[in-house]
Specification:
This protein has 288 residues and is an all-alpha fold. The chain has helices spanning 4-53, 55-63, 72-84, 105-134, 140-145, 149-177, 191-208, 211-220, 226-231, 233-247, 253-287; strands at residues 97-99, 188-190. A two-stranded parallel sheet has the order 1-2. It is globular, with a radius of gyration of 26 Å.
Length: 288
């Protein structure tokens, strides 16, 4: 017959076994995460190499594009000005010069711009790696409901980035470059400041456009509801305007409202997404 001490010893051994198993499981997850990070880093390096190979196009047509009067947005603005007799709407000059103030400035510009381009091009693959890491922890129902996560997230990010690059960036550059307090002041903009402005606006808009995906996830775990979002419209309006003011570096109201308009649309789409999630939850409960 087992004594109390022997029973305690057996229970301690079982508990120790469970702890070792849990620790192994934790380290297994870390190992899996490490390989996802390694593959993501390799993908970023590959895309950076592609950007480096075609750097003349990257620099002249993409980075310097919004400073060129032949940029697509400026041409469309001039066509709209001719069609609706709005002479001031046509961009005729962008009065600032880009300078480099550091010895390694142009070298770092090439490195940073290639990494930024790699991040933009590799964003869908990064989402795919995130999905592969999260997928094993989901149930079959959750996997089916999250089907298309990579596609829709990538699509929204690309749409947001294109909106930022072709709408927000040129409007901001045009406004800021033409602000003149005195003829004695000449706009000499450092290349670092110019690149960071373009990158911040483009990536910022791409991330903001992921709002419906965030609402979908929060609705699935029960944090967000369509009733709450409808009741919070007035607060959301203020928050959206603040975010638009932060994203746009200019004090131009038109630019800020241009950024805020799609965000209002995204908020309404997010309400519909949340309502759809709730409707599916109710129908699933009825079936059960």
């Amino acid at each position: 017959m087992s004594t109390p001490n022997s029973k305690d010893l057996i229970q301690a051994i079982k508990d120790k076994g469970k702890n070792i198993e849990a620790e192994m499981s934790f380290f297994d997850h870390l190992e899996v995460l490490r390989w996802h990070l390694v593959r993501s880093a390799i993908a970023i390096c590959i895309f950076a190499g592609i950007a480096f190979t075609f750097y003349d196009f990257v620099f002249n047509d993409i980075i310097m594009g919004p400073k060129n009067l032949n940029f697509w947005t400026y041409r469309m603005m001039c066509k709209a000005a001719d069609a609706f007799n709005l002479a001031d709407f046509c961009v005729k000059k962008i009065p600032f010069n880009i300078i480099n103030t550091e010895l390694a400035g142009q070298f770092m510009l090439q490195i940073n711009s290639c990494l930024l381009m790699a991040l933009m091009m590799g964003f869908p693959y990064l989402l795919f790696e995130i999905w592969l890491f999260v997928k094993p922890a989901l149930t079959d129902v959750e996997r089916r409901s999250a089907r298309g996560f990579v596609f829709y997230s990538s699509l929204l990010f690309i749409l947001g980035a294109l909106f930022g690059y072709y709408i927000v960036v040129p409007l901001s550059i045009n406004f800021l470059a033409n602000v003149s307090l005195s003829d004695e002041i000449v706009n000499q903009i450092t290349i670092d400041n110019y690149l960071s402005t373009i990158a911040t606006l483009t990536l910022g808009c791409g991330i903001v456009f992921l709002l419906p995906i965030l609402v979908f996830i929060l609705s699935k775990i029960g944090i967000m509801t369509p009733e709450f979002m409808r009741a919070s419209r007035r607060y959301a309006t203020v928050i959206i305007l603040v975010i638009a003011a932060i994203i746009t570096p200019s004090a131009d109201v038109i630019t800020m409202l241009t950024v805020a308009a799609p965000m209002f649309l995204l908020y309404e789409i997010s309400i519909m997404v949340s309502a759809d999630v709730k409707r599916k939850k109710i129908s699933t409960r009825k079936i059960k």
